[in-house]
Amino acid sequence: MAEPDSRLDDLEIRIAHQERTIDDLSRTVAEQWARVDLLTRQVAALHERLREMAERPTAPGDEPPPPHY
């Protein structure tokens, strides 16, 4: 049977590793959330621009001819 001090040391080491892992995971989740938030805002802005473009009436003569003409 292992000595009580040795078992206590092992538990403290495991807890320290678990705390570090939890901190790393928490930081990763926070970074990913910030990235998702940024991407969500960018998609919303693009959606709005596409909606505005779709609502804008265009006549065939409004656009310049392509360069190959």
Automatic annotation (TrEMBL):
Gene3D superfamilies from the UniProt entry: 1.20.5.300
InterPro entries, alphabetized: SlyX
Span list, region Disordered: 50-69
Pfam name, any one: SlyX
Coiled coil start-end: none
Stated family: Belongs to the SlyX family.
Protein's recorded name: Protein SlyX homolog
Gene this protein is translated from: slyX
